[in-house]
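Data availability (excerpt). The following record was deposited with the supplementary files.
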Amino acid sequence: MRHARNWTSLIVACVLGLGAAHAQTGRNAESGLSEQFEDWTVQCTEVSGTIICTMLQDVRAQGQAERLISARVDLLADDTPRLTLILPLGLDLDAGLELYPGTSQEMIATVSPSVCQQSECYAFLSLIPDFLQVVRERIALRIRMTPFNAQATEVPLSLRGFFDALERLNNLKE
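Predicted structure:
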């Protein structure tokens, strides 16, 4: 069991870190950097001698300490931003996730968790220019997910400060 857990951790670390390691080292990045952009934080850490920077936001139920969703944005080797959603266990994986901008009823993306480990699942979405344009004027992105054998529920992911944090993330790779 321990052996399987180590492999899972290694796979998740590779999936979450490899793209970032190529695109996010630069003269402007330094380990320990942490800057707040409204509801988003840009952080840089050193991993095996490489500085990796990411944007992050944890979504919690009001008045609760437990995290509902964690969102991370890193830059792939081609500078495309990639959204990583860290999700709780117990979701209906076949239903996937649906993303809606603001109060719109028009879905702009679907994504399915692609990796699960003992305590969470991961879903990845490349943030192409068309997607970014749709959410640019919104204050939130609604993420609809379906717990196993339950009704779909929506979790709002704040976009306040998102584009300033993304600009900073891009500047750190230079």
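Summary of structural features: The longest strand covers residues 50-60.
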